[in-house]
Amino acid sequence: MNALVALCHFCELHGPRTLFCTEALHPPSPTPSQAGAPIPGDRESDREGEGLTMRANSSATQRGDMCEGCRSLPASHPGFVSVDSETGIRFLSHQHPRQPQLFSVVRQACVRSLSCEVCPGREGPIFFGDEQHGFVFSHTFFIKDSLARGFQRWYSIVMVAMDRIYLINSWPFLLRHLRLTIQSLQSTALKVFDSEQCVCPQRAVRMNSVFSPAVFPHQRSGNAARSLPSLTQHTNLWASLHSSFSWLLKACGSRLTEKLLEGAPTEDTLVLIERQTEQEEEMSCWEGAEGGGTRPQCHQSESELYRDFLFDEGKAEGYPGPKFRSLRHLRQVLGTTDFRQLAWHVLMGNQVILRGADPGLIHSAFTMLKALLPVGCVRSVTYSAQYEEAYRCNFLGLSPDVPIPTHVSSSEFSVLVDVVSVERGSLYSAACGENILSLYQFNISSTNSQPTDKGPTLLNKIEVALSNENLSVDVVSHCLLCLKEEWMNKVKVLFKFSKVDGRGREDTQKVLALLGATGPGEEDNVRLLKFWMTGLSKTYKSHLMTAVRGGERPLSQ
C-alpha cells in the first residue's frame, strides 16, 4: 500500500510535532541485465523468520534541538527496517520521512490533525485531505501524564495516502486496529499515572503552589515535556510501534484487491447475489437460533456464481453414466423437432418434467436447458420421488415410478419427457459407452404441440446458432448469453412501460413493434416477454419504482 503511518504529538513548548513515522519502500523493478543481480543491502539476516524481520538501519538522521517530548529516538539511534520476505517491501521507521516531499506532507497532516481537523470531543477518527497534499485518516487521543497541563497530553496517529477511495474503504479496518494500539498505550500510561499520583498527588501540589504564567511550563520539576516511553514505562515502545505500523501497512495493502469489471452487472448476476444474500441470512438466523458461531461469508465472483447456478456445484459429476455435454449435444440426441418443442416449453415458462431412472442424465439435461432462461426464471427440483406443482418448479426430475396427476398431463402448460432404458446386452452397452441413444429412448408428450415453422424470434435465432457447425460450443454459449441479454433489455423496457407507467394496450402494442416483437410469432414473443418479467431482480424493480415515485412527487405537490 502506498501510504505511511505517523505518530504525532502536541508539545506544550513547540506545538504539533511528528514523533514517529513508518513508510513502505517497494523494491525497484529489475532491468533485464539486473534480473539475476542481488538487491543492494539484502542480507541473509533480513530473511530470517517468517513475514517481517527487523534490523537497524545504517544511516542516522540528523536532528535539531528538540525537547524530550518531541523526540522519539535518541540521536545515535539509526531507526528500524522491516522486510516483507514475500514481496520484498521494506518498512522504514524514523522520526521523519526520508524524502523531503513526504516530510512536508506529513508535517501538514500532523499540524492539521492536532489543530483544526478534530472530531467532537477531540478524541476519535476523522478524514481530511486533498489531491495535492494527500488524504489523511487521523485518530486523536489523550495520554495521561501527572505533570502535564490538565493531567493529559494530546497525540494522534495519522495514515497518509494519495488514494482517497482506498483509504475510505479501509476506514473500518484502520479504526479497529488503531484503536487496539491506542487503548494499549492509554491503559499502560494510566497505570503509570495512578502509581505516580499515589506517591505524590499533583493536584494538591498545584493548588498549594504560587501560580506564575511566565514560568508555568517549567514549574513541574523542570520536565514539562516528557517522552512517551517515560509516560508508559515501555522501554521498547518505538520498536513495538514500528512492528504495529509495519503490520498495519502490510495488512491494509493486501486486504483489498482491484478487479476489472466489464460494464454494469447483468440481471443474472443481481439475482444470484440476492439469492446468495438470502441464503447467508437464513444460515445466520439458523446458527443464531442454534447458538453456534457465525459461518464466514464467501463472496464469489460473477463467473463463479453463474457456474455454480448452472451446475449446482458439480452435483451431476457425482453420478455415473453418460451425460449431456452441451445444448447442441442435447439437440442432436433429441432430434430437431423434439428439441424445438422442448425448448419452446422452456422459453414460455411451462413446466418441463423429465422422468427416468438415471438422475445424472436428467441433471445434465436440466443444466443445458437452464442456460436458455434468465436466472430469475429458473425454479428447479432436480430429482424427486413425488410430483411437485408448477408454481414450485418449472424444471422437475422424477423417478420412473412416479405418476403424473391428470390435471398436469392434460394441461397445455407442461411437457413430459420419459427417459426409457433400451434393453441391450451388457457387451453392447459397454461398447457404446457415452452414446446416449444406445442406452435410452426419449418420449416427449404434451397436449400443446406447436407448429415447427412458428415460435418466438429468440428460439429461431438459438436454433440458427446451434445448427451452425462452424461455431464451437464456447462461441454458441457466448452467443446465447448475448441473445438473453438482448431480450432482457426488451423485458426491462416493457416492464417500465406497462407495469410502472401503466400505459394502455394501444401504446404497449407500439412499444412491442419498436422492440421487434411483432410480426411472425408475435403471440409467443409477448408470452416470452411476460414470463421473463418474473426473472427481473428485486434490486432493479425497487430501483425503478423508487425513481418513478421520486419523479412523480414534485408533480403531486
Automatic annotation (TrEMBL):
Keywords: Cell projection, Cytoplasm, Cytoskeleton, GTPase activation, Lysosome, Membrane, Nucleus. GO terms for biological process: negative regulation of transcription by RNA polymerase II; positive regulation of TORC1 signaling; positive regulation of transforming growth factor beta receptor signaling pathway. Pfam families: Folliculin (PF11704), Folliculin_C (PF16692). InterPro entries: FLCN/SMCR8_DENN, FLCN_DENN_C_sf, Folliculin, Folliculin/SMCR8_longin, Folliculin_DENN. GO terms for molecular function: GTPase activator activity. Residues 25-58 are annotated as: Disordered. One of its GO terms (cellular component) is cytosol. The keyword Flavoprotein does not apply. Residues 71-537 form the UDENN FLCN/SMCR8-type domain. Residues 41-50 have a biased composition (Basic and acidic residues). It is found in: Cell projection, Cilium; Cytoplasm, Cytoskeleton, Microtubule organizing center, Centrosome; Cytoplasm, Cytoskeleton, Spindle; Cytoplasm, Cytosol. PROSITE patterns: DENN_FLCN_SMCR8 (PS51834). Belongs to the folliculin family. This is Folliculin. The lineage of its organism: Eukaryota, Metazoa, Chordata, Craniata, Vertebrata. The gene is LOC106577129.
